[in-house]
Design a protein that fits this description.
This is anthranilate synthase. The protein is α+β, with helices and mostly antiparallel strands. It is 28% helix and 32% strand. Helix 14 (521-535) links the parallel strand 25 (505-508) and strand 26.
């Protein structure tokens, strides 16, 4: 086809993109001028006018460094927020497009990973020990880069790779080729943490991206916002003779279950911000690809936000960063010596629907090759590190994740794959389906059920609550739960707390870190919250880090667990009632008895038998919980939260 031949072979075709979206029988061709902008809010999205057709308006490549907009740490490599304004849009039947794309892959030289296997094993061990083991978060994604080079035209190599990815990879959300010739050169604001703006020169130095992303990050269509957390990886080559047993073991594996649960919670935090009623959880499902099977959920909710604000509030997917997101960015910046460029960012297609409303379709930018004009090739891949990770397992995961793109570039031989029928037949086995669905049996129905605004009654209706956010946006989910009880909720970061005395309830919220480190500004701020509320005998609830700070103020010592409780659901005895709750913690308070005297009245404690580890505490006008009542892992979160909050008010206050 002349159009594709010209784009891949003409001397100067200008910026263009080729997209094959999930299930489509067409290859979309986008062409137009290229620009760079400083902020997501500056991405061009023209207003809809009478007579305008529905469709795409701008394709934005959002780099990882854009996290600076949220004040998060990152290695600043200067990669620009590049925007292709769609001046020309074509759809080519897929069969015609495949016939026109190059068939033969030009020669490519494999240069290996920038961090070898031994060094990456050591890096994994260090993060597990020094970060997850010290309460910095529940999971982190640390990448390394497979390098290669070619003397061929990057467009021809990318075109051949795209053809292989479309024909050889199943279950892909987007297959794409984006060609950006050198352009730009203006200065951009560099949004640094702490609000200190700098200036960096941002230009598109020329690059060609080709890949096959399995994962939708976020989409908006007619006000319906959706996200798609994916985690857990089963390599089909490991299915062996008894594929059914292998698949059942994979679905029952605690590490795989915990990984998906943690990213589900993390994306629910984002949905709590962008969706009016928070996100509804759909699934879990199996996502079948050619050589891999993943597990996934879908999240859905209604939004009235500008799609550029949706992009901003969801930077970036926890499957490529970690949890909680702000500290994950800080950890990544410490351990990754080079910038991520577009890896872990998004490829965002913004447009208008038939009624003129905004639309957004944004897959995660990973499983792709970034080809420079000089033939240098980078394929970035990261492993999700959780408390159950092993260094050897995470090394293998990076090889598997880079493998599909390296195969498309001719650097790997495609392993023999089970046919689509084989894996789908296994997936339909009643035992397999039951094992997958059993993951939901003890999850919170609040997040699994469809929710709509409805009148609320009860003792908390109209009460006000302030949640102090210590850099963990679980506070957004906590806010939704409290609002579902009829409360009027405000969330403030610990860096900007004010007016504590004007609220009926203050929640000392969750966050990463060591509760005994008084030099940590988050811990210090929560300490001031606790002191102010206890001194006035004003209602106070502590959650996770806030609970730990409250425990210290009440005289309880802290203990760092040998094995972190990160993303861990447990059945506990909570003041005489068995509860299923979700833990995200490394530290715990310890108490010698179930009741203790304090300067603020008698303290009642829920403790672990044998160790004295404190799950929860309560006293006159205050309570604290080590777990997260708002987590999807806490089975009866709204009921439990109702009991906790009503308990901190005096009978007169809740009458």
């Amino acid at each position: 086809m002349n159009l594709l031949h010209d784009l891949l072979g003409a001397p100067d075709p200008g910026p263009f993109a080729l997209l094959r979206r999930e299930g489509s029988e067409y290859l979309e061709v986008l062409r137009g001028p290229l620009s760079t902008v400083a902020r997501l809010a500056d991405i061009p999205l023209p207003e809809h006018a009478d007579g305008d057709e529905a469709g795409p308006r701008t394709l934005a490549l959002v780099p990882y460094r854009q996290l600076a907009e949220r004040g998060f740490d990152r290695v600043d490599d200067g990669t620009p927020l590049a925007c292709l304004t769609v001046a020309s849009y074509d759809r080519i039947p897929l069969a015609e497009a495949l016939a026109a794309l190059p068939d033969a892959v030009p020669d490519v030289t494999d240069l290996g990973f920038d961090i070898d296997d031994a060094a990456y094993r050591e890096l994994v061990s260090t993060v597990l020990r020094d970060e997850i083991g010290h309460g910095a978060g529940s999971n982190f994604v640390i990448h390394r880069t497979a390098r290669a080079r070619t003397d061929a035209d990057p467009r021809l190599l990318a075109g051949a790779a795209l053809r292989r990815l479309i024909t050889g990879e199943r279950g892909v959300y987007w297959s794409f080729l984006v060609h950006l010739p050198a352009a730009g050169g203006e200065s951009m604001a560099d949004h640094r943490p702490g609000g200190q703006p700098g200036r960096v020169t941002s230009r598109v130095n020329g690059r060609t991206l080709v890949g096959a992303s399995p994962e939708r990050h976020v989409s908006v269509d007619d006000g319906l916002v959706m996200m798609n957390p994916i985690s857990g990886t089963l390599r089909h080559r490991d299915l062996g003779a008894d594929g059914r047993e292998t698949l059942l073991n994979f679905l029952s594996d605690r590490k795989e279950i915990n990984e998906l649960s943690m990213v589900l919670d993390e994306e629910l935090k984002m949905m709590a911000v962008v969706a009016q009623q928070g996100g509804q959880v759909l699934g879990p499902y199996l996502k079948h690809m050619t050589h891999l099977t993943h597990t996934e959920y879908l999240l859905a909710g209604r939004t009235g936000l500008d799609v550029r604000d949706v992009l901003r509030e969801t930077m970036f997917a926890p499957t490529l960063t970690g949890s909680p997101i702000e500290n994950a960015a800080r950890v990544i910046a410490r351990y990754e010596t080079s910038g991520r460029a577009y890896y872990a960012g998004v490829l965002a297609l913004l447009g208008r629907d038939a009624e003129g409303g905004q639309s957004l379709d944004a897959p995660i930018l990973f499983r792709c090759a970034d080809i420079a004009p000089d033939g240098t090739i980078a394929v970035k891949a990261g492993a999700t590190l959780v408390r159950d990770s092993t260094p050897d397992g995470e090394v293998a995961e990076t090889h598997a994740k880079a493998g599909g793109v390296l195969t498309a570039l001719g650097l790997r031989t495609a392993p023999a794959a089970h046919t689509d029928t084989d894996i789908k037949t296994l997936a339909e086995d009643p035992a397999v389906r039951a094992t997958l669905l059993s993951r939901n049996e003890r999850l919170s129905r609040f997040w699994l059920a469809e929710r709509a605004p409805e009148p609320v009654t009860g003792p908390l209706v109209g009460r006000t609550a302030l949640i102090a956010d210590a850099e963990d946006t679980f506070t957004g989910m906590l806010g939704h739960l409290l609002r579902s009880l009829g409360m009027r909720v405000t969330v403030q970061p610990t860096t900007a707390l004010g007016g504590l005395s004007s609220y009926d309830l203050v929640v000392a919220g969750p966050g990463p870190g060591d509760p005994a480190d008084d030099t940590d500004p988050r811990v210090a701020a929560l300490g001031r919250v606790v002191e102010e509320r206890l001194s006035r005998r004003a209602p106070l609830l502590g959650v996770c880090l806030g609970h730990q700070v409250l425990s210290r103020r009440l005289g309880l010592p802290m203990h760092r667990r040998d094995v972190p409780y990160q993303g861990l659901p447990c059945d506990i005895d909570l003041f005489g009632v068995t509860r299923r709750v979700g833990f995200y913690s490394t530290f715990t308070a310890v108490a010698p008895a179930d009741t203790l005297p304090t300067a603020y009245g008698e303290l009642q404690l829920s403790r672990e038998d044998g160790t004295g580890f404190v799950h929860a505490l309560r006293g006159p006008g205050f309570a604290g919980v080590q777990f997260h009542p708002e987590s999807v892992l806490t089975e009866h979160g709204p009921q439990l939260l109702t009991e906790l909050v009503t308990g901190v008010f005096t009978p007169a206050a809740v009458a």
